[in-house]
Specification:
The protein is mainly α. The protein has one domain: de novo design (two linked rop proteins) (Up-down Bundle), CATH 1.20.1440.60. The protein is built from four helices and no strands.
């Protein structure tokens, strides 16, 4: 069984029960805390962009959960979430290049988003498990 699912005896009743949601919310909060140290001149550019994309990952997961009775809509929202996670990785690349993040912070967060992306892909390829 993968990370994205719980043991069958632990029924997933809402999006907040999904491990991928929990991980994406945690990552979004890590981004928020890290960006507090970014320079003020980045407030309306890099800081805003990375916060928006990181928060959108969990937001799209919540939307996908509510659309799971419509397989194409469910997969589309998971795909949107995957795209936002990848966008967050790009902003992390910029933050590292600009020396706003340590290599260790970058690596840990980048890898967390890689794991989230893998979980989202796994969910979208195993639709039968998620259908209502």
């Amino acid at each position: 069984m993968n990370d994205g699912m719980k043991i069958m005896s632990e029924k997933i009743r809402k999006h907040t029960d999904l491990r991928v949601y929990q991980l994406s919310f945690e990552a979004g909060m890590e981004v928020f805390e890290l960006t507090k140290t970014f320079p003020k001149e980045e407030r309306y550019s890099l800081t805003d962009q990375i916060r928006r994309s990181s928060r959108s990952v969990s937001g799209n997961i919540a939307e996908s959960w509510r659309k799971r009775k419509y397989p194409k809509s469910f997969v589309a929202k998971l795909s949107d979430s995957e795209g936002e996670a990848a966008e967050t990785q790009v902003w992390l690349d910029y933050a590292l290049q600009c020396n706003y993040l340590s290599k260790e912070s970058y690596r840990l967060l980048y890898d967390k988003y890689e794991h989230i992306i893998a979980m989202l892909i796994n969910m979208s390829t195993k639709l039968e498990q998620w259908k209502i």
